[in-house]
Amino acid sequence: MAMSQRAKKKKSLKLLADFYAILIYAIFYIPVVVMMVFSFNDQRNNYYWAGFTTKWYGELFNNHALTDSLWYSVVIAVLATLISVTIGTIGALGLKKFEFKGRRFVNQMLYIPIIVPEIVLAVAILVVFMTVGVRLGMGSILIGHCTFCIPYAVVTIKGRISGDDNSMEEASMDLGANRLQTFFRVTLPSIMPGVMSAAFLSFTLSIDDVVMSNMLAGAKQSTLPVLILSMSRSGVTPDANALTTLMILIIVIAMVLNNYVKSALKKRRKKEVNL
Amino acid sequence: MSDSIVSLQGVHKKFGKNTVVRDMNLDILEGEFLTLLGPSGCGKTTTLRMIAGFEETSAGSITVQGESVENKEPYQRDVNTVFQNYALFPHMTVFNNVAYGLTIRKVPKDEIASRVGAMIELVQLKGYESRKPDELSGGQKQRVAIARALINNPKVLLLDEPLGALDLKLRKQMQVELKRLQKRLGITFVYVTHDQEEALTMSDRIAVMREGVIEQLGTPTDIYDYPRTRFVAGFIGESNLFDGTVKGVEDGILQVKTEAGNLLVSGRNFEVGERLHISIRPEYVEFSKEPVEGFDVPGRVKDFIYMGTVVKTAVDLKNGQEIKYSRFEQDQTIRANDSIYLYWKPARAVAIKWGAIEEERYEEEK
Amino acid sequence: MKKKNRLPALAMAGPVSVWMILFVTIPMFFIIFISFMSRGIFGDVVYDPSMESYLTLLDSTYFNVISKSLKVAAFTTLACLGLGYPFAYYIAKRPKDQAAKYITLIMIPFWTNTLMRLNSWLLLFQTSGPVNNFLQNSGITDAPVRFVYTDELVALGMVTSMLPFAVLPMYSSIEKLNKSLLEASADLGADAKTTFQKITLPLTFPGIFSAIILVFIPSLGVYTVPDMLGGGKVLYIGNIIKNQFGMIRNWPLGAALSCLLIAITGLLIFLYTRFTSIEEMEVV
Question: Which chains does B contact via 3+ CB–CB distances below 8 A?
């Protein structure tokens, strides 16, 4: 088929655009790849490439500073996710479905942790805690994390709630379900995808957080990101690269499995429908 | 006869493996109101978009005023479009929307003001100049869209289901207005719609499309009274359709045997033994309590449907087919479950060649 | 008339409201309050109203840090807009299901620890790192180039870590843009460039503004990037604030700097709400 001049011009433009997109993706992926490659580096401080080794994957479990802080981070992230998603889910429903005095105010407050630089919020909470006499530690970090996770959870879930009215809930109650039954059988399942992505977001925000964790940490234990930041002066050691590589692998495998199960279920449902 | 202003020759359009328009030849005449009519997916909008330049032809050529537009971008073509959902620029006022084409061409400010003013007056939107599109009703948006497309004095105005989003009453009103506007300006309108009533009301000529092919091109009366294919007969207006075989020919009248019984239809170029379709409009169907010469189509009255100005009577035939006839008033002598015999003037029925289009297409694909 | 049952509303909206008031509203007001107090000799806060902290900010040391931070944040924002807009446009023009995959592809790297990704730039650009090796081996330079702990590397780190926050809001506003508007513009005689200026750009402006807010404000307060890539030698507002609440202990000064950030944020948000509601902002 002969191509017109217009088609040719379009095609070369598209090629240019493809190239550009690949370039941007490269900017996003180069740091990840470099991070992974240097987890196999046989040099204690990763100052230069000294040959291939897998020893760090074994040795990282002997580095207690690293494993302790990882454990600390995971515990905080799990707790922060549970708290934020619970409060965020019912909060999103309450803010979307009920009219009450101060609703606008709360809605606006939610955007402060999202927009204001984290250091400002961290410092503000720290000052209040110090003045009131709250002891810093896991509890204070947890509160800090929840303070920015809850708004993200609310915003994510609110986007999934269809319509401002209660017609679905009313239909459920009309058919004889009480409020609690309605919540667990109708409302919650209908927003479940939003709740899941809120949970995922909360977990990743919490486990990656430096600023809040740094400001609100007690003297004893620091989270993994805070540890990495303090390591950076003398060079982050390859066992940290190994650990991070393992973490991203776990996340990606979990995502792939999740997608696989989802599409398998979908296929099965389709089959059932066809029968 | 006036000259053709837009001409499509052998135009073919594929989206991936799907052929959307096949081998289309169409001459659009200067100053006419031509409608591309068909169900969704028939390729009518794609045809319009190829003329406008939003889609490229896969094969064939399109000329506007005798000049090929193959290598012209949409903004270089002397045609303008009224979009399906108006596509008004939401961030601009009515005035700026209408003025857009002139602003682009760097027309002097005072000329823009006077031309836009005149155009806004033409579409009866005076006083709305400084409103934004979301402050307008559907009908008003429609008028802005038309004014905006007309401001460049296009040779051809392309309209893609422009009234689709309006309610019935407003649609009827806008049909009349559009037709008047077209006559007054003398611009060629190419109009896309799936609404056969709209097409019949407004058009000088209609091209009925199905699956990328023009099945029939003609005036509204032509198409209504003499559908050339079974599809056209069924799509335009309401039709009772029979499939049958020619048993005899006499003075241009065909004696046809169908599963519903024997009947007569006028038709030329048919031979004995040939398969054919017969189409008869509800308003032309007659009934009698006694059998009528040449006809043997017995039936049982099923029910009556009141449609406002007409009453339709549904009749079950012996082969299970249901046909309808319509009258302005209900005949009081007929009741449900009565046995009646149907007939018509043979000239009122249309004989349609068996699968003319289908066979053509089949040949082409081979 | 039966009184309306307020219990469900209270039970559902209550916890989030209380949390926000306790840990956002009160701390924010308190930090503003502190900024107008004085510093005691031992680094404590003396509840004695004064403007001293704000006046200190005008000192050349702090003023330079502030103006440098503003410059870097502005550069980061511009770079993210410039790089991100064509990219967002590219994705928005894909078919829906493909675009969703492309967006996920942007997100995946961000599940890796942020600091480790920043550290990768150090590994790449350090004195005996791959980039310097390449430059020397290919004869482009004789001696290693010093990239680490420079403002340029900090800028690179800022741009690469902020870019997605620019791409996502711009993507969703470009994606919302009705294709027929662009066709209408071309139909009326505008070429691609004019259509972009007159239609695309103004209509995607909310997305661009969201991107500005979501990149500029965090860049202004961030201290991890300068800490990692600037070696802690390059100080920005974020570092100064952090230090006032850590080793140096000058709460009112840190509070005043925080208030400066709050004021800049507030100003941008105010401008934003002039033409769209804040709840329209795409943040996730």
Answer: A, C
β partners of residue B61: B9
Cα C226 to chain center, whole Å?
14
- The answer for C200, left when phi > 0, alpha when psi is -120 to 50, beta otherwise, is alpha
Beta-strand pair B188-193/B33-37: parallel
Give A274's pLDDT tier (boundaries 50, 70, 90). low
Mean residue pLDDT of chain B comes to 86
**Cβ within 8 Å of residue C195, ≥6 positions away:** C182, C185, C186
Q: How many residue contacts between B and C have a Cβ separation below 8 Å?
A: 65
In terms of domains, do B20 and B164 share one?
Answer: yes
SS3 per-residue string spanning B96-164 = HHHHHHHHHCCCCHHHHHHHHHHHHHHCCCCCCCCCCHHHCCHHHHHHHHHHHHHCCCCCEEEEECCCC
CATH code for the domain in which residue A188 is found: 1.10.3720.10
Nearest to B83 among C180, C190, C202 (CB): C180
Q: CB distance from C64 to chain A under 8 Å? A: no
B-chain CB neighbours of A4 within 8 Å are 56, 70-71
Closest CA to A148 of A67, A208, A94: A208
Q: How many domains does chain B have?
A: 2
Mutation site, A25, A28, A142, A156, interface C, largest C CB count within 10 A: A28
Distance between start and end Cα atoms, chain A = 44
Q: Find residue B62's DSSP bridge partners.
A: B8
With an 8 Å Cβ cutoff, are A6 and B71 in contact? yes
CB B207 within 8 A of CB B218: no
User: What number is the average pLDDT over the span B80-86?
Assistant: 88
C187 touches chain B (CB under 8 A): yes
Domain hosting A138: range is 64-236
B75 and C183 within 8 Å at the Cβ level: the answer is no
Nearest to B340 by CA among B299, B286, B285: B299
Which residue from C minimizes the CA distance to A255?
C108
Q: Among B299, B162, B165, which Cα is nearest to B240's?
A: B299
Distance CA C109, CA A30 (A): 9
Pairing of strands B59-64, B213-218: unpaired
Chain A partners of B58 at a C-beta cutoff of 8 Å?
1
Which chains reach chain C with 3 or more Cβ–Cβ distances below 8 angstroms? Answer: A, B
CATH 1.10.3720.10 describes domain C33-280: yes
Task: Please indicate, yes or no, whether residues B98 and B212 belong to a single structural domain of this protein.
Answer: yes
Examine the pLDDT at B1 and tell me if it is beyond 50: no
Task: Give the pLDDT confidence of C189-208 residue by residue, as tens digits.
Answer: 888 888 888 888 888 888 89
Mutation choice for A interface testing from B61, B71, B75, B77 by most A CBs within 10 A: B71
Q: What is the pLDDT of residues B230-252, one digit of tens each?
A: 888 888 888 888 888 888 888 88
Q: For residue B83, give its domain range.
A: 4-230
B83 at C interface, C-beta within 8 A = yes
How far away is chain C from the Cα of A62, in angstroms, using its nearest Cα? 20
Kindly report the average pLDDT of chain A as a whole number.
84
Taking CB atoms and an 8 Å limit, are B83 and C203 in contact across chains? no
In-domain check, residue B365: no
Asked if C213 contacts C268 with a C-beta cutoff of 8 angstroms, the reply is: yes
* Under 8 Å between Cβ of B245 and B273: yes
Q: Which residues of B are less than 8 Å from A5 in CB distance?
A: 71
Q: Does C111 touch chain A (CB under 8 A)?
A: yes
Q: What are phi and psi for residue A50, nearest 5 degrees?
A: -120, 20
Q: Which one of A39, A120, A130 would you mutate to disrupt binding with C, by most C Cβ within 10 Å of its Cβ?
A: A120
